[in-house]
Amino acid sequence: MSSESPEFAPFPDESDQPAVDPTVQPVPASVVAQVDAADSTLQNPKIAVVALGSNLGNRLETLQGAVDALEDTPGVRVRSVSPVYETEPWGVPPGSQGSYFNAVVLIRTTLPPAALLERAHAIEEAYRRVRTERWAPRTIDVDIVVYQDVVSDDPLLTLPHPRAHERAFVLVPWYDVDPAAVLPGRGPVADLVAVVGVQGVARRGDVELRLPE
Question: What does the H/E/C string look like for the chain?
Fold first, then answer.
């Protein structure tokens, strides 16, 4: 797919692809009202993008648990949850690991970036994420991709995520939940997906993540 393409179709053209994605939209009006009411309790919230990934154990259950844990965090409200994508592991030989389930969550938060990162690590630890080697399989990844328009080269939390612009498994679900999204310093997410392509990123229409109620 060329970056010069006038239009971006984020999903492979599959005959069994539903015309309307039932996994996320439309969100029931009652849920929207609850989320909006919860947002009103946050003072000057910031928008953050969180990427989730799992290739060990019950992948869907783990991703849903991470979404629910984010919602249960004081100072965090989950606004949108992307469809689930199945992707090949990054940075390892083909067939050496199981495939991933990936998704992106948009949140509103009053937590500063460092506190949000601490919460992300706590969720990973709750699911016994083991950090033995860089590209090892894992029960859960909870990565902060963007925090509002913050740009930081702090080695503990580089913002935006330094490799987000080249990872279709982050960009494609992010585009789903925010087609107008812009990755600070890199440009519109739609343009970035057009550059990296969607090969190896398959939407799973048979599974879904629930937006917390």
Answer: CCCCCCCCCCCCCCCCCCCCCCCCCCCCHHHHHHHHHHHCCCCCCEEEEEEEEECCCCHHHHHHHHHHHHHCCCCEEEEEECCCEEECCCCCCCCCCCCEEEEEEEEEECCCHHHHHHHHHHHHHHCCCCCCCCCCCCCCEEEEEEECCCCECCCCCCECCCCHHHCHHHHHHHHHHCCCCEECCCEEHHHHHHHHCCCCEEECCCCCCCCCC
Given a contact cutoff of 8 angstroms between Cβ atoms, the answer to whether 45 and 110 are in contact is: yes
From the list 85, 76, 61, 58, the residue with the least C-alpha distance to 177 is: 85
Q: Which residues pair with 185 in a beta bridge?
A: none
Return d(Cα 166, Cα 192) in angstroms, integer. Answer: 8
Q: Which two tokens stand for residue 135?
A: 């590209």
Kindly report, residue by residue over 49-100, the tens digit of the pLDDT. 999 999 998 999 999 999 999 999 999 999 999 999 999 887 666 666 889 9
- The residues annotated as belonging to the active site are 129, 138, 141, 143
Neighbours of 38 (CB within 10 A): 16
139 within 8 A of 128, measured Cβ to Cβ? yes
Instruction: Please count the residues of the chain.
Output: 213
Q: What pTM was computed for the model? A: 0.78
CA distances, 54 to each of 47, 86, 115 (Å): 23, 10, 23
